[in-house]
Amino acid sequence: MANVLVVAEHIDGKLRKVTLPTITFASQAAALTGGEVHVLVLGNGVDAVAGEVAKYGVSKVHYANSPVFENYLAETYAPAVVKAAQAIGATVVAAPSSTTGKDLLPRVAAKLDAGMVSDAIAVFDDGGIKFRRPLWAGNVLTTVEVVTPVKVVTVRTTDFEAPAEGDAAAVEAFDAGVAASDNAEFVSFDQVKSERPELTDAAVVVAGGRGLKSGENFQMIMDLADTLGGAVGASRAAVDSGYAPNDWQIGQTGKVVAPDLYFAVAISGAIQHLAGMKGSKTIVAINKDADAPIFQVADYGLVGDAFEIVPALTEKLKSIV
Ligand code: FAD
């Protein structure tokens, strides 16, 4: 068997959307290995999540309910993933390139004595299974071959579409046999509560930069985002200046987004920012500097003062949406 194992993510009893493009990646990998796509769901009371993910064209879903998995800890999740990978004969183990995936999979790779690819954006056959990943803020794309029998991969989910829903696959309980960790203890999980969609899931993102000059001025970014039912993002310079919270940061050292519509307001378009948003389907840039590099990636560019353009645009949109 040369199956592919996907580690599912969920929150508040619901499947996280980042799992879906990871399944698409896994299906493409399985087409090359000749195996099946299996999904592992770890948690406590995750039967519904397992049932939900089973509808996305996978061969089987394995779920483990245990108080040990109530809260994510790499120390307890990693041995469970390793056991599941070995049980199903996985030659590829994949997870979203999220905070959790980036924390969990290196540990899984070490335990499986496997080579690892981070941020995979493609998988293909070129005299063997190979992966493509960006380097240097997306300026270089590199091809990676993993020579170990098992390959562990975090997936850049913005580069894969979600699969269509279909017939539900078999769902099976999995005995991970993992005890509580002696080395690590869960303390708390502080989640930012927002009425807006999650930045990485949103169809519309409105992001503001240092050119906004204050946190108060981000209100017009929020107003535009709320008019379109979108999420709010920021450049690192805006975050570092204290105008926006850290979890809004988009870019090389922030979140990677690829919404249908991205507004870059008073953002110059440094390569480190582009690394987090240039996969967006339609990019609208608003900047008073006609030579700002953001206009090189923009589909629509508005040269002018954001303090005039954004409120006027919001008013206009309010009258039509
Ligand atoms: P600026 O470059 O200062 O641009 C402000 C823009 O606002 C200008 O183009 C200006 O013309 C425009 N402007 C000013 N006033 C107005 C107005 N009234 N109306 C319209 N436009 C106006 N950056 C990120 O964003 N994300 C990252 O993850 C990230 N990671 C990094 C990692 C490393 C290792 C390094 C070295 C840098 C990183 N950076 C990142 C920083 C990046 O290099 C830039 O410094 C940053 O993106 C600039 O942010 P900005 O465009 O908001 O600010």
TrEMBL record:
- InterPro entries the UniProt entry points to: DHS-like_NAD/FAD-binding_dom (IPR029035), ETF_a/b_N (IPR014730), ETF_a/FixB (IPR001308), ETF_alpha_N (IPR033947), ETF_asu_C (IPR014731), Rossmann-like_a/b/a_fold (IPR014729)
A single Pfam family it belongs to is ETF
What's the domain of life for this entry?
Answer: Bacteria
CDD domains this protein is in?
Answer: ETF_alpha
For the Electron transfer flavoprotein alpha/beta-subunit N-terminal domain, which residue ranges apply?
Answer: 4-190
Family to which this protein belongs: Belongs to the ETF alpha-subunit/FixB family.
For this entry, the protein name equals Electron transfer flavoprotein subunit alpha/FixB family protein
Question: Which organism encodes this protein?
Answer: Lujinxingia sediminis
